[in-house]
Structure prediction request, 95 residues.
Amino acid sequence: MALNRSDVEKIAHLARLGLNDADILRTTDALNNILGLVDQMQAVDTSGIEPLAHPLEASQRLRADIVTERNQRDTYQAIAPAVQNGLYLVPKVIE
Prediction:
């Protein structure tokens, strides 16, 4: 799929971009190069390839799920303007 000048002008208008003639030509070429690359990538047969979560098959180092800080909820809520049942009360914003 290739874009022509009118396509780029329409896209620029929708994106509220002010492009001059030289910019339109450069942008048309750049977008066509990008779309050409996408077409090349879509043409590759990937039916026998298993998807990867990471290209290097690296695994995350996980830390132990233990509490490292003490509970300070009561301390923080002591200075709050309004609290009820352990929750912060805020003014209603949406009617």
About this structure: The beta strands are 83-84, 87-88. The chain has a mean pLDDT of 91. The radius of gyration is 27 Å.
